[in-house]
Amino acid sequence: MIDKLKQNRDVWKIFTREEEYNSIFTDQFNRFPYYLSKYKDIFEPKVSKFLSENGFKPKYPGRSKFAVCLTHDIDTVFPSVADTLYFTAKLLASGQKKEAYRTFFSRLSKNINPFYNFKEIIELEKKYNAKSSFYFLAQDLVDQDYRYNIEDLKEELHYIKDSGWEVGLHGCHTSYNNLEDIKYRKKKLEKVLGEKVIGYRNHYLRFKVPDTWQLLSEAGFKYDTTLGYSNCAGFRNGMCHPFKPFNLKTDKEIDILEFPLNIMDGSIFSSFINGNSMSLDLEDAWNLTKNLIDTVERYRGVITILWHNTSMQGNGLELYEKILIYCHEKGAWMTSGEEICDWYLHNKDNRFD
Ligand SMILES: [Zn+2]
Predict the structure, then answer these.
(1) Ligand 1 ion: nearby residues, β-carbon < 5 Å
(2) 88 and 218 housed in the same domain
(3) What pLDDT shows up at residue 114?
């Protein structure tokens, strides 16, 4: 199948992200932005469509026709004064007064802090027979955007792991292009967790094609799920299936599984990260999300969703629960990156390479 892909020049270009190799321009975080891409039609997974037309038909446990990879990047747990003001203002701006009030007083105690919500997230997902992955930062005080000391969250990490949910690494600003940095953070997180971590996503979705894949593979990760645009939902490389990336520099496949990121809370609502987002209201955000889910179902793919723990109230929570309900009704397999990774690596039918 990979040879068929190679022969179709257009599809191969999209799949490998060839245009990102020698891009002269990037945004302020060194990312390749959607507006520079020649491949604009990213709500259509063109490469997965091609694979389907050529007989690729992945299977999932039970009768599920597709999978949903649920993920949470943990950027903020104990908000700073600046975080408190930022999130409060953001909620007020979208008319969510009750949530703004709660957030404003979040620093007073863990019990009323809406971002200290790992148990609530797990309980919510359980209701719909779902599981997810939590990606944690492993920072030092000197790091840019320092948020928390991972050692202070030992109990929480173990609670997540013991519940059967996944703990993965959320790489720092300095990680995506530095092997030593990635290895250092991985080790730091593993020391607190007491076991190996296999899943990765970089903070701010910072990523360099194909180098970051190569580094993550060398550092011992089994999968990454960073490949999505920070300011637009969709299928960045036309794929709605996990895949092993191809390195055009070495002419070889890279030994890591990529779960392309399709929907991030911040990219469809107002942005958590600098840059423009789609800025949709709740109704439009839901329509877009539903559409992408239906598309992935059609191709028997995996839709990867990133919902920050800071979006689990008000409109953010409402939309997240709608996703859970909708996919539950469709009988989708909703689970962590770790479980989907394992499934894909052990089922030959689910691989086209
Ligand atoms: Zn982040």
Answers:
(1) 73, 75, 203
(2) no
(3) 87
Distance 43 CA to ligand 1 centre (A): 24
For residue 132, the model assigns a pLDDT of 98
Helix or strand holding residue 267 (H, E): helix 265-268
Which long-range contacts link 29-34 to residues 24+ away (Cβ below 8 Å)?
29/173, 29/204, 29/206, 29/273, 29/274, 30/177, 30/206, 30/208, 31/204, 31/205, 31/206, 31/207, 31/230, 32/209, 33/229, 33/230, 33/231, 33/275, 34/229, 34/231, 34/232
Would you state the pLDDT for residue 104? Answer: 86
Low-confidence residues in the chain, pLDDT < 70: 270-276
Q: Ligand 1 centre and the CA of 143: distance in Å? A: 13
Both 321 and 246 in one domain: the answer is yes
State the distance from the centre of ligand 1 to the C-alpha of 203, rounded, in angstroms. Answer: 4
Q: Encode pLDDT of 219-228 as tens digits.
A: 999 999 999 9
Residue 246 C-alpha to ligand 1 middle, in angstroms?
A: 26
What is the total count of domains within the chain?
2
Say if residue 93 is in the same domain as residue 216. Answer: no
Same domain, 127 and 109: no
* 206 CA distance to ligand 1 middle (Å): 9
